[in-house]
Design a protein that fits this description.
Largest sheet: none
Structural class: mainly alpha
Strand content: under 5%
Number of strands: 0
Length: 155
């Protein structure tokens, strides 16, 4: 899944503007201009579209954790792992929204996609583990759609 698609989904989910997203990242010490953030959030067929790199997305997801949960000064700043994978995006979103296994299963069920607890836990294992499962693009799309339904219910 394109990093730009993840950014657009999260912007809609949080109902915030481009400048606020850039400011979130800047508060953690990573410099991203509001104009660049706006370019990342454009559709790929629009003028001024820019591809969002893994480093920008990683810093944004760390900023999202701080935005949703607050800053913990007793802990060192969260490191970033590059290149970003769908599994890492899923993990960061899980932490940011403080989701438990039952919450995740409810999110997937809300978009008619059932996952067992074993399948779910396999997504959060370290790469190389015998039970590790790669999070595909469609699975991440279902998650983002279900999380949006949960956080921004219609009407």
């Amino acid at each position: 899944m394109l990093n730009n698609d993840v950014l657009r989904s999260v912007r809609y989910l949080l109902d915030i503007n481009d400048a606020s997203m850039a400011e979130m990242v800047q508060q953690l010490g990573f410099n991203v201009a509001p104009s660049d953030m706006s370019a990342y959030l454009k559709r790929d067929d629009e003028p001024d579209f820019k591809v969002c790199g893994d480093e920008v997305l990683a810093h944004f997801l760390n900023a999202l954790v701080v935005f949703k949960r607050g800053r913990d000064d007793s802990r060192p700043p969260q490191s970033i792992e590059l290149p970003m994978s769908n599994n890492q995006i899923l993990k960061k979103m899980r932490v940011a929204f403080e989701l438990k296994d039952d919450d995740l299963q409810d999110i997937f069920r809300s978009v008619d996609f059932a996952l067992s607890k074993a399948e779910l836990s396999a997504l959060f294992r370290k790469a190389g583990h015998s039970n590790y499962r790669v999070c595909g693009d469609q699975l991440l799309r279902y998650f983002l759609k279900g999380l949006t339904l949960r956080e921004r219910p219609a009407g």
